[in-house]
Every structure is written in C-alpha cells, then in structure tokens.
Amino acid sequence: MHHSHNEEMNREAQEFIDELERRNAIQHLPNKEKEILRAVESVDQSMALKSKDLKEYLLLNNKESPVERVAKMFKLSPNEVQDILISAQEKVNRLLAKK
To answer: Are the beta carbons of 67 and 82 closer than 8 angstroms?
Structure first.
C-alpha cells in the first residue's frame, strides 16, 4: 500500500515538472504561435470556468469552439488557427524531446 502511494506522488511530481517544461518550451515559440496557443488555452479555461458542468461546457464548445473564438480575435480563419496550433505543438514536442 505504502509503495503505491509513493508512486502516485512521483507521478504527480513528474506531471508537474512536465507541465513546467512545456511552459518553458512555449516561451521559445515564435510570437504569433505563442500568442495563439495561450489565447486558445485561456479561452478554453474561461469557458470551463463559466460552465457549471461538462454538458454546459460542451454546449458552449459546440456553439463556438475556443479555436473559432480565437480565430475571430486574431482575424484568422479557424483552419489557420488550427495549423498554427499544430505547428506550435510540434515545436514544443521537439524542444521537449531534446532533453
């Protein structure tokens, strides 16, 4: 029993470290990618906070997804935002794979 508790804590610590490394990697993205990635994350977060449950969140998301909302903010098409996100994600993954 005691053993698995330690493993659990290690896993949480590792997830926390991974998240920090991911944030650091995001710092190194080109400005546009960094802005859009952060915008999508913060729009998604605020939608989650506004929703009282998952069902409401999914309704909001269906009406207008974070990508669509951010596309409007940056005067881009949702496809362009999607491409930028994919590119940003790949760069972050490459940076993290280097360590």
So the answer is: yes
